[in-house]
Amino acid sequence: MSKRNIIWLAAIVVIVLAFYRLAPMAAEQDSVHRAYAPLVEADALIRQRFVETIDDQRLIDGAIRGMMLKLDPYSGYIAPDELGAYRRGRDGSYTGIGVQLGVRDGQLTVIAPIEQSPAIDAGVQAGDVILAIDGTSTEGLSIVDVDRLLDGAPGSRVALRVWHAAGQGEETLTITRRRIDLHSIKGFRHNRRGGWDYWLDQDARVGYIRVTHFQKDTPEEFDRVFDHLRSAAVAGLIVDLRFNPGGSLTAAAQMVDRFIDRGLIVSTVTRHKAVDEIKARVEGTFPPVPLVVLINGSSASAAEIFSGALQDHDRAVIVGTRSFGKGVVQHVIELTQHRAAVKLTTAHYRLPNGRIIHKTDRNTDTDEWGVLPDLVVELSPQEVQAVRASRSELDRSLVMPTTAPASAPVATAATQAAHILVDAQLEAALVALLERVEAGETGGQRSSRRTTSPTG
Questions:
Q1: Cα–Cα distances in Å, from 255 out to 239, 249, 328, 332, 430?
Q2: CA pair distance 52, 58, nearest whole angstrom
Q3: Whole-angstrom distance, CA of residue 310 vs CA of residue 216
Q4: Shortest CA distance to 444 belongs to which of 377, 375, 397, 392?
Q5: In 3-state terms, what secondary structure has residue 197?
Q6: Which residues pair with 159 in a beta bridge?
Q7: Are 53 and 46 in contact, with CB atoms under 8 Å apart?
Q8: Which residues in 378-429 belong to E strands, given as ranges?
Q9: Cα 264–Cα 251–Cα 75 angle in degrees, nearest 5
Q10: 185-324+370-452 adopts what CATH topology?
Q11: 249-257 vs 218-231: helix axis angle to the nearest 10?
């Protein structure tokens, strides 16, 4: 066959293939047009017959926001005038009231108020249901929409109508927004130099690190504290993740990597079954020490990844109560030529044993969500609030040296004593840790799961 004939034959094949694909493409486009025809019709009716002229941007924002609202409570739309504030709020400090929110049983729920925040000072509690914000009902709003309502200038006020899960009933709280600087690593008490004391029981060489949330610099802060404890011959460590609402997946995975030297830390799975895995490395692994992790119903997201991964690797004993069950992967994707973005749930987190963390309609009545402690220790609502009050008073009892004026008092053991509470969960964690220190163990023992009764 001549070269010219080959070229003509190739051209014919290309044309045939193009026509072959044209029919399904046309059918797909027609299907899309039919699906969105009501939206186009509604847009035309609004433009033609609504009593006032409506700005195009307002219609576009409303349409996209409505679409996102029908997906799940954690997806949402970030409009052009909101995008700048959203970016600034990701850097470890922001202006607001200081709450991490989730959805439980269809209701907007406080996973945990951030420590030393206006929300906790005003009386917002973990488990509270937010019913309204400045008179606007939260029913049907996404988390992104609620964040938008809570955002505001420093010094401005916002009124929250809440229902307290602890039994105090409904209350309206007026909260003044301010700048919140997030410090994620704390100890058990303050030392005489104005810093944190990371010993729970110095005689027994038991260290204690409270991680309030996970952010970019959390692993480095954690490393510095652990190096200090290790230089002082720490025998065992308690990591307290109670009331930790999560944060950075990367930070949580990096911290898990400090305690295991091989294997899967966490994976994500999409609707198309695409799996992305984060695995541990030998480099940077801490020397083995017995480890206990404390969690409760306000431990969520990255806190669940940290505790769940260590549990699955039999590296830590988990003590407390079942975690919140929030494990969705979200990406903020900026829209082309629109100077706005969507926050979209794209996958679920999956623990090394294959379970997803997220509580869904399909697994809500099973054990297949969240993290179940090895040692279940219940606290009464009054005891839970006592723990939060103890922490708040301790945090407020001392201004850290970086911001304290020269005349600021340094907390003494006597002035702190009233603020430090060794609750039943922490006491159980200490006992469990000392048992493993005596036995020379570094891992967990999931077969020992048991429940203690509330002590309140």
A1: 11, 10, 19, 24, 21
A2: 13
A3: 20
A4: 375
A5: strand
A6: 174
A7: no
A8: none
A9: 90
A10: 2-enoyl-CoA Hydratase; Chain A, domain 1 (3.90.226)
A11: 30
Q: Cα separation of 386 and 298, whole Å?
A: 15
Does this model's pTM top 0.70?
yes
What are the tokens at 255? 């911290």
Query: What angle, rounded to 10 degrees, do the helices at 3-49 and 56-69 form?
Result: 100
Tens of pLDDT along 221-230?
Answer: 999 999 999 9
* Domain 89-181 fold: Pdz3 Domain (2.30.42)
| Position 23 pLDDT exceeds 70 | no
Ramachandran class of 110: left when φ > 0, alpha when ψ lies in -120 to 50, beta otherwise: beta
Residues 6+ apart with CB under 8 A from 185: 196, 209, 210, 211, 212, 218, 221, 222, 225
| Rounded-to-integer distance, Cα 51 and Cα 42, Å | 14
d(CA 352, CA 174): 43
Alpha carbon 150 to its chain centroid, in Å, reads: 18
323: tokens are 């975690």
Region for 105 from its dihedrals, namely left if φ exceeds 0, alpha if ψ lies in -120 to 50, beta otherwise: left
Angle separating helix axes 302-312 and 249-257, nearest 10 degrees: 30
Q: What confidence tens digit (pLDDT) does each residue in 375-396 have? A: 999 999 889 988 988 887 777 6
From residue 242, alpha-carbon distances to 79, 249, 288, 296, 348 in Å are 34, 17, 23, 5, 22
CB-CB contact of 238 with 208 (8 Å) = yes
Strands (DSSP E) contained in 415-456 are 451-452
Amino acid at 125: Q
Flag whether pLDDT at 299 surpasses 90.
Answer: yes
Q: What are phi and psi of 343, to 5 degrees?
A: -100, 110
Spans of all domains in the chain: 89-181, 185-324+370-452
- Cα first-last separation, the chain: 93
Distance, CA of 249 to CA of 234 (rounded, Å): 27
Amino acid at 158: V
The string of DSSP codes covering 328-358 is: EEEEEEEPTTTS-EEEEEEEEEE-TTS-B-S
Instruction: For tokens 């404390």, name the residue.
Output: 294
Give Rg (Cα) of the chain. Answer: 26
